[in-house]
Amino acid sequence: MTSEASKFDRMISNLLTAAKKQSSSAPEEPEAIDYDWDSPSSFTLSELENLETFTAQAGIEIAKALSGQIREEVELQADKPQQYYAEKLPLLQSETANFCISLSTEGSKACGLIAIPGSQTIEWVAKVLGGSAGNSEQERKLSSLEAALLQDILDAVTKAFSNAFSQAGGKTLKPGTEISPKAELPEANPSDEYTLLSFRTGPDENQPTISIILTCDVLAGAAGGRKDGQDNESPENMRKKMLTTVEQGYVEGYVSLGTADLTIREVMDLEEGDVMLIHKRIDEPAEFIVHGNAVLSGYLSRCEGQYALRIAEPKKTTSKGKKR
User: How is the chain split into domains, by residue range?
Assistant: First the structure.
């Protein structure tokens, strides 16, 4: 057996071995994550990050407002925003006593509420009056004076949150006129989407929290999502924006001079200086290939010391990549 024949046999053997290994190796199964059907997904990851930033800033503003009301420094720890359907909101199902006030946007459209635990409320009201709440007073009802003071506290919290909300791109919020001892959303449907913003009065997760519930569509402004006036955006404008985004992407292509049919023997016998003919005349243009489709044709040229393609004409293709 000649050395050339032996070399050819080894190459064929290597090709067959490689093909066998490739066919026997099963592709890895992609990791699948079950969709959470119990929680809405109104916001993207970047919008949720924006909401976290906004919630932290809102917590600072609310703490300042509370400090001014009770004449004592207050620090609040903002938790991550949580999305819920109305029927799944934990605050509405909690048996813990809360004092709540409704929230609405301009035009009196109800959009959520603010809730403060009863024990925390008694403590703050007592501090406004210059005293402190004892353990025996944690569950008692508020007097008319204490209710008025609580209204002032809730108004201050709402104003501070609304100011932070407006600066972040949200709508102006207005508090209701009546304090309710129960968290309710009377105008909500079970499938309505809400976001819960929580502010703890200490680092302990069991500390009392100020809870603010807002509909996801109202909160979208602070998330950097849909703004006012965009609800009725025309499909043509949306198409143009999507096209503009797609056009910024990069694609990789290559220039094809042509093709040639050679046997394995002929490929093995090629040496430096040999000439290989391709199936294209010298006066025919080369093609620029992207994802297997010829999108441009032109002629080889030079530019700034590099090979270049002087465009002759673009090649129009159908959705399947075939020439029309």
Answer: 45-227, 249-324
* Record: fold of 249-324: Surface presentation of antigens (SPOA) (2.30.330)
pTM above threshold 0.70: no
Thinking of the domain 45-227, which architecture would CATH place it in?
Answer: 3-Layer(aba) Sandwich (3.40)
pLDDT tens readout for residues 48-86: 999 999 999 999 999 999 999 888 888 899 999 999 999
Same fold flag, 45-227 and 249-324 = no
Q: Residue 216 pairs with which residues in a beta bridge?
A: none
DSSP run (H or E) holding 242: helix 235-247
Q: What are the phi and psi torsion angles at 255 (to 5°)?
A: -95, 125
Sheet strands (E) in the chain: 77-78, 82-85, 98-105, 109-117, 173-175, 193-200, 209-215, 253-256, 286-290, 293-303, 306-314
Backbone angles phi, psi at 302, to 5 degrees: -130, 150
**278: helix, coil or strand?**
coil
Q: Kindly tell me the sign of the dihedral angle through the C-alpha atoms of 194, 195, 200, 204.
A: positive
